[in-house]
Amino acid sequence: MIHLERKNYAQLGTVTAPYVHAVKHNDTLYVSGLTAFGSAAQGQDMASQAQEIFRQLKVIAAAENTTLSALMKVTIFVTSLDALPALREVLFANFEESLPASSLVQVSGLFSPDLNVEIEAVLALD
User: Fold this and answer.
1) Residues in the chain with pLDDT < 50?
2) Most Cβ neighbours (<10 Å): which of 24, 56, 76, 121?
3) So what's the pLDDT on residue 1?
4) Which secondary structure element, helix H or strand E, spans residue 5, and what is its range?
5) Residue 123: left (phi > 0), alpha (psi -120 to 50), or beta?
6) 72 three-class SS
7) Kind and range of the H or E element at 119?
8) How many CA atoms lie within 13 A of 99 on its CB side?
9) What is the DSSP string of 18-71?
10) What was the pLDDT predicted at 25?
């Protein structure tokens, strides 16, 4: 039987939809898509929203006794490619020594019209 530990992080607020912030399986943490929803960055530009998402990822990593250097894979959903240069700056500023595998997907919209980026991640845990 596979043991999955479903995790929510109090510092990120209560999840009101049918999902958890992350699921841990063995030494791997699968992080749900994070957005700037409910934060001061909601409705702001893509770079500001991405920076908020990385703040959330750092909270999750710290709670798991690791850092963003443990990122193995990120999938980034954007509503426009126009702000890609600014988004890349945020990515490089937040990725530590090791760059993760990455996918970038342009979507027609996210669950709220004032969101323009969502990031899901996979972290390796010790």
Assistant:
1) none
2) 121
3) 59
4) strand 5-7
5) beta
6) strand
7) strand 117-124
8) 8
9) S--SEEEETTEEEEEEE--TTSTTTTS-HHHHHHHHHHHHHHHHHHTT--GGGE
10) 94
In the chain, the largest separation of any two C-alpha atoms, in whole Å, equals: 45
Rounded to whole angstroms, what are the CA distances from 1 to 4, 25, 30, 117? 9, 12, 18, 35
The pLDDT assigned to 98 comes to 82
pTM for the full predicted model: 0.92
| 25 phi, psi to nearest 5 deg | -135, 115
41 burial class (0-12, 13-18, 19+ CB within 10 angstroms)? buried
DSSP letter, residue 99: P
pLDDT confidence of residue 114? 96
Residue 88's SS3 state is helix
Helix (H, G, I), strand (E, B) or coil at 73: strand
Could you tell me the two tokens for 10? 């109090």
Average pLDDT of the chain, as a whole number: 92
